[in-house]
């Protein structure tokens, strides 16, 4: 209410001060109408002031986020690729964390690794699914295999001669039946569909 009444109060106070400062100042119709026209011209910039403040705050937040992202340290690139590996994926005594341990963070936070003591082998030409309850570390394990986490110790080796696919948890389905989502617009092959 005050914001919308501000132009009226500004003109009222301006005219009152103009008249009260010096008795020689007379408020004529010419001066009043010119002043009111100027106050009306200033009304739009005054109403845009809150939008300007909001935009400046949003710009500041965006610049801070971009600065943090662009100045972030590079990942170490710990995933090795061996052409003649015995297994498609081999993880030995690996521990992973989302943040790189520096001296400062180690003193401040005695938090353990996000994933620790990981040991597994995936045979060539096998189909593997990672399943578990919410928050059990499935996504973190897949991110570790992709090289998106920090390796604290251990090793990760992926056979580069194998075809390995990563399917993230972001499912894309049609607003249709389960059968139509499986067929995905192709004709029904009953044997393949049942398999």
From TrEMBL:
Gene3D superfamilies associated with the record: ABC transporter type 1, transmembrane domain, P-loop containing nucleotide triphosphate hydrolases
Residues in ABC transporter domain copies? 115-177
InterPro entries, A to Z: ABC1_TM_sf, ABC_transporter-like_ATP-bd, ABC_transporter_C-like, P-loop_NTPase
Major location (coarse)? membrane
**Highest taxon in the source lineage:** Eukaryota
Q: Does the keyword Transmembrane helix apply?
A: yes
Pfam families reported for this sequence = ABC_tran
State the compartments where it is located: Endomembrane system
Q: Which UniProt keywords apply?
A: ATP-binding, Membrane, Nucleotide-binding, Repeat, Transmembrane, Transmembrane helix
**GO molecular function annotations of the record:** ATP binding; ATP hydrolysis activity; ATPase-coupled transmembrane transporter activity
Kindly list the GO CC terms recorded for this protein.
Answer: endomembrane system; membrane
Q: How does it sit in the membrane?
A: Multi-pass membrane protein
Q: Does the keyword Transmembrane apply?
A: yes
User: Under which name does UniProt file this protein?
Assistant: ABC transporter domain-containing protein
Q: Which source organism?
A: Medioppia subpectinata
């Amino acid at each position: 209410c005050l914001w919308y009444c501000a132009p009226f109060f500004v003109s009222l106070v301006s005219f009152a001060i103009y008249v009260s400062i010096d008795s020689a100042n007379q408020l004529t119709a010419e001066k009043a109408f010119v002043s009111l026209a100027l106050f009306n011209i200033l009304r739009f910039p005054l109403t845009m002031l809150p939008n300007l403040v909001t935009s400046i705050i949003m710009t500041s937040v965006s610049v801070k986020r971009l600065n943090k992202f662009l100045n972030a340290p590079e990942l170490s690139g710990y995933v090795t690729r061996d052409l003649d590996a015995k297994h498609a994926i081999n993880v030995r005594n690996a521990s992973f964390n989302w943040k790189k341990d520096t001296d400062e963070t180690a003193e401040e936070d005695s938090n353990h690794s996000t994933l620790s003591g990981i040991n597994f082998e995936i045979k060539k030409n096998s189909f593997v699914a990672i399943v578990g309850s919410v928050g059990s570390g499935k996504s973190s394990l897949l991110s570790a295999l992709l090289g998106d986490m920090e390796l604290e110790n251990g090793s990760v080796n992926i056979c580069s001669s194998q075809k390995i696919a990563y399917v993230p948890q972001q499912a894309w389905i049609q607003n249709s039946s389960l059968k139509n989502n499986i067929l995905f617009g192709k004709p029904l092959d009953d044997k393949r569909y049942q398999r």
